[in-house]
């Protein structure tokens, strides 16, 4: 190649005149080389990592999410998509290790997960340090609020605990509840949900008379339930997720409790119904519209897409197999399906520029309908769902029954 070491006009001309025009054969070789390079650019692959609780106490949340991954698109925006699923075993330390592996070894462009609040919270520092967008499948608002320098990389699809706690307090108030007790997991989910329940109970002039905790692996909560019963509450709220959440209502019923019982939306799957059995009949929970999609009014914004997801999932897994936790993964896929083509206009997958553009595109999501509602995100709201994304459900004979307002 010529070297233009001087910008003096005479030198420029002298050196430029020494450049030879390639021969026809040389031009052909150059064209062939450029053509050979084009498929490599066109076939650049988007990599999505998933950190899911496939074993341990939260497995009933993670397994439907994993089963949904098989339904996600294999190509978006003309690029092939690879999904890499890792099991965090319902453990925060493992969730961090999985996240680091996906970023440093697999070089993923985005991460979906974890299935539960404590694990999702533990992943925030890692994804922020790795400048990698993350879409959590867990409930706590603390995962995305406030949107600071670290949480700007974090989004979520499930309804927040604040949205669900407000629904519980409103329902309890209309049913004459004046006193309420709480029993929840001894972790971030339990603590944050209690905070929201207590706040909205106060707004509805409901007194919180007891607050107890238990571990996911505890074989008994008899001691905690006896303390709650001593306060004679009109209602009890259980702040727990997955099958461990069945233990408090079963114990309350065994001890003769006749008041209202409410659950967190973390119980929205058939494994919970199976474990809790008849002891959960007549109990309530604010839930994803997916649980009762067929019962929703025809004008509900989530009905059509929820039914579509259910049909896809049950075609593979069988009738009655669907759960809210799979739908949250499906919605994460919809978010990425909307954002990836936008990011591809900025940079190629596998680059820091692409990850930043993907983050920006997720935050700019507006008017995207999914299985839980309509998503309108902003720089201060990385969920984007409104109150239409929750419905009140009663458990009757091991079925989810929609409760109109």
From TrEMBL:
The keyword Signal applies. Transmembrane segments: none annotated. CDD domains: PBP1_ABC_RPA1789-like. Pfam families: Peripla_BP_6. InterPro entries: BCAA_transport, Leu-bd, Peripla_BP_I. Keywords: Signal. Residues 45-391 form the Leucine-binding protein domain. This is Branched-chain amino acid ABC transporter substrate-binding protein.
